[in-house]
Amino acid sequence: MSGNLTKASETSRRPRGWGRAAAAAFFLTPGLIALIVLAIVPMILMLTYMFFPRGRFGGVVYEFTLENFERLSDPLYLGVIGDSFVIAGTVTLLALLIGYPAAYAIAQLPPRWKTIALLAIMLPFWTNFLIRIYAWIVLLSGPGLVNGALTGIGLIDEPLDLLYNEGTIVLGLLYGYLSLMILPIYSAVEKLDPRLREASANLGASPARTFFSVTLPLTLPSALIGAVLVFVPSFGNYVVPELLGGGKAIMLGNMIRDQFLKARDWPFGATLSLVMIVITFILLIAQAVASRRVRNA
């Protein structure tokens, strides 16, 4: 009798198990197909092209070579990678210096004003990135609003050359990715237990001591996440250097685009893309390790 009940229960469980597996497969299959087609297959192709030379008139010659890796040691390409590091690092540092106080201030606002402030931060993301960059061109050009305002109040006699330099590139990237720094820090500050700061104050710590001993260590992992979110797209961006920099400052993203679309050197373009991917993985690993150490400290 008990054996028949056991078999019956196992039989009744099988349809449920198969149903759950079928449902999981149904919902996962589209995402897996998109991941394979849009990410894994291009990655395999890129890793393959790195070991082949460029054809005489473009394309790929399927003969094994390590020439593309040797070209990476050229001072020209190393200089571009170094300049990209400096610009992306500057943008990240400025985003941290501006974003952390902004996120902290927003977290202290009343709920109504907090919602308005967050909406103001997210609002630019609802506009196309290119449109926002062209808006900066209108603002900073010779007859633009900034020069017009400065001339109107008598601070300058002639329009300033505000476009097509590294400072403008930094400004454009900072404007484009600042919210990626503010939002994770705001989330961390918002979740802080206020009793921790109250306990620190009750023990006689000053507001500055409370911030550096309690608030900053607990929100530092989110700040590191924000730093990665700002650095990575800044490092590989090619739209802002092209439009606001006028092509005078070449970054890694511009060089990769030129190798694929202008020079038609897909193998070397794939090699440069690998450099960006490796740097991204290194930053992600460093951020994870640093965050773990901060939490365990």
UniProtKB/TrEMBL annotation:
Domain ABC transmembrane type-1: residue ranges: 81-287
GO terms (BP aspect): transmembrane transport
Give the similarity note. Belongs to the binding-protein-dependent transport system permease family. CysTW subfamily.
Subcellular location(s) of the protein = Cell membrane
> Under which name does UniProt file this protein?
Spermidine/putrescine ABC transporter permease
Q: Does this entry carry the keyword Ligase? A: no
- State the CDD domains in the record: TM_PBP2
Residue span of the signal peptide, if any? none
Bilayer-spanning residue ranges: 21-52, 76-104, 116-137, 169-189, 210-232, 268-290
Q: Which domain of life is it from?
A: Bacteria
Record's GO cellular component terms: plasma membrane
The record, for Pfam families, names: BPD_transp_1
- Membrane topology of this protein: Multi-pass membrane protein
State the organism of origin: Acrocarpospora phusangensis
Q: Which PANTHER family match?
A: INNER MEMBRANE ABC TRANSPORTER PERMEASE PROTEIN YDCU-RELATED, INNER MEMBRANE ABC TRANSPORTER PERMEASE PROTEIN YDCU-RELATED-RELATED
Keyword terms of this UniProt record? Cell membrane, Membrane, Transmembrane, Transmembrane helix, Transport
Query: Which Gene3D superfamilies does the protein's record reference?
Result: MetI-like (1.10.3720.10)
Main localization of the protein?
A: membrane
